[in-house]
Amino acid sequence: MPEENDTAVVSQRLSSCSSSTEILSFLSTVRGPWGFIYYQKAGDCLWFGRDFLGRRSLLWKFDAEVKALTLTSVGAHCAGPAASAWQEVPAAGVYRIDLKAVSDAGCVTFEVYPWAHGENGPSYSCTQAILESVPSGCTAVINRSGLALTSPVCPLNTSIPESFNQEEMHPNAHPCDLEQLPAGRERGEAVKRLIGVLSEAVRRRVQALPSQGNSDPSDDNARIAILFSGGIDSMILATLAERHIPAHQPIDLLNVAFQLQEPRKQKESAKKKHKEKPTEWRTGGTESLTSSPFDVPDRITGRAGLKELQQLNPERRWNFVEINVTKEELQETRRERISHLVHPLDTVLDDSIGCAVWFAARGAGLIAGDGDQEPFTSSAKVVLTGIGADEQLAGYSRHRVRFKTSGHQGLVQELAMELARIPSRNLGRDDRVIGDHGKEARFPYLDEDVVSYLNSLPAWEKADLSLPRGVGEKLLLRLAARQLGLGQSAVLPKRAMQFGSRIAKMEDHRERASDRCTRLLTE
Questions:
Q1: How deeply is 337 buried, as exposed, middle or buried, from its count of CB atoms within 10 A (0-12, 13-18, 19+)?
Q2: Which residues have CB under 8 Å from 310's CB, separation 6+?
Q3: Can you give the residue ranges of the Asparagine synthetase domain (predicted)?
Q4: CA 155 to CA 452: how far, in whole Å?
Q5: Distance, CA of 240 to CA of 477 (rounded, Å)
Q6: What is the pLDDT of residues 452-500, one digit of tens each?
């Protein structure tokens, strides 16, 4: 319903429900990201919750002194005893509070309606996640009626052929180039279907846009932006988005880079000898020296990806926005804004990705003009992000480690764990961070139909970790990229955003991703 306000539509439907069963039945049919708080006047009840994958932020806290429960999408971080009061509402079901009972009893009890896969009922881990994470001073009980929401995605296919159990494949036993890899009829059909379902997911997200009122139809500002590194996930999103966006509209490719640290001081004589030359910066790994402190790995692959897109679609205007962040700007903005948006998450990884996504989504940088670069700020209100591809298609190095130690059985278990924890990992954080700019994060790889299709496939059709890096992980997606006409980007190995943008190298190099980040603490 592109011409209608989705909040108004959902509110009207909820208002027409006369029982808990009807409310749950309706919420089970809603697709896409949602987080809601709804007062049901008829029963004097408060309902709230998040979608199955937790794509929208919702926080809660309970103040024991005044006996008040607060629900919000963003909660500012503060120093002192209340610093850790905010928690993310688990995306494990919806919650109902009988306000009259609360008033009579003087305590807050949540009645929980968990997600369930068809007739299987809610999982034990799902139920435990809810019961263990309620705010201090509150209690939670699973509803006595046994009612539950129906999951919008099908269960994960955990089957493993006996041949794989008997003889695991070994690394480097296969061709290391996608062109040499025979897709086979079965996998070829899977590639075709993946492109179809993912293309439809992108179409929904680039065509259902906020109304611009009486805007000029000839306005050539981009309405869609993509968090863009030039890696396979963002390249496929850009390629598919191009299919569904009017030809006259540009697409903004948001590429963020954090200033590289100056190399160690050279000897005085060497400085004098080369004083006329520009400073050289190391990007790390095997990348070459560069004359710009912002030529980080993601900037280099981003430019290469831009060239691929321009060759595939030369008529499209691609705004490659180079977003350059200095250490001083990072520290100031983190202190004043980003720390509050990332909260209540508090790890080094949350800090790195939260900051990188905030600056990228702001969209303020430089684009190529007539000769020189010129300042540019993206006006797009919808930002596509590639979250979800690695989790579902075995894109992380930990998947390769698990496969090496435990074979396909271990890989299937790892993918099941990945899927189960997607709602509690980073989607709420990214929703808060991107939403701070008045923009909306959209996640095509986490479209319910995409997740269901990938869940229906056995693990060995989605990835073959006996193949080398850049081929075996996310194999199905790489084959799809080749079919879409992409080149070198189809075989780029995974590089995490915090490393590709070089934010992880900007401050304390000795930290681990899971460490608590002291930089997120406000004074």
A1: middle
A2: 316, 318
A3: 406-515
A4: 8
A5: 13
A6: 999 999 999 999 998 888 889 999 999 999 999 999 999 888 888 887 7
- The token pair that represents 454 in the structure block: 């990938």
Compute the Cα dihedral for 280, 285, 288, 290 and give only its sign. negative
Strand 440-442 and strand 45-50: pairing? unpaired
Residue among 442, 490, 506, 502 at smallest CA distance from 181: 490
Q: Percent of the chain at pLDDT above 90?
A: 60
Cis peptide before 210 (omega within 30 of 0): no
Closest to 61 measured CA to CA, from 131, 129, 137: 137
**Cα–Cα nearest to 483, from 106, 86, 191:** 191
**Statement: residue 332 has pLDDT above 70:** yes
Confirm if 316 and 251 have CB atoms less than 8 A apart.
yes
Q: For the chain, what is the total number of helices (H) and then of strands (E)? A: 19, 16
Question: pLDDT tens across 56-69, in order?
Answer: 999 999 888 878 89
Query: How far apart, in whole angstroms, are the C-alpha atoms of residue 411 and residue 399?
Result: 6
Amino acid at the residue 127? T
Signed CA dihedral, 23, 157, 390, 316: sign only: negative
**Contact call for residues 427 and 387 (beta carbons, < 8 A):** yes
Helices (H), 248-381: 268-273, 297-312, 327-333, 339-342, 348-362
Number of other residues whose CB lies within 10 A of the CB of residue 224: 26
Based on the number of CB atoms within 10 Å of its own CB, is 518 exposed (0-12), middle (13-18) or buried (19 or more)? exposed
State the Cα–Cα distance between residues 435 and 424, nearest whole angstrom.
Answer: 18
Interval 136-152: pLDDT, tens: 888 888 898 889 999 99
Fold of 173-207+220-262+278-520: Rossmann fold (3.40.50)
Q: How far apart are CA 263 and CA 241, in angstroms?
A: 40
pLDDT(73) > 90? yes
Q: Read out DSSP for 381-442? A: SEEE--TTHHHHTT-SHHHHHHHHHHHHHHHHHHHHHHHHHHHHHTHHHHHHHHHTTT-EEE
Compute the average pLDDT of residues 324-343.
Answer: 94
pLDDT tier at 513, thresholds 50, 70, 90: confident
Residue ranges per domain, the chain? 6-150, 173-207+220-262+278-520
Residue 85 banded pLDDT, cuts 50, 70, 90: confident
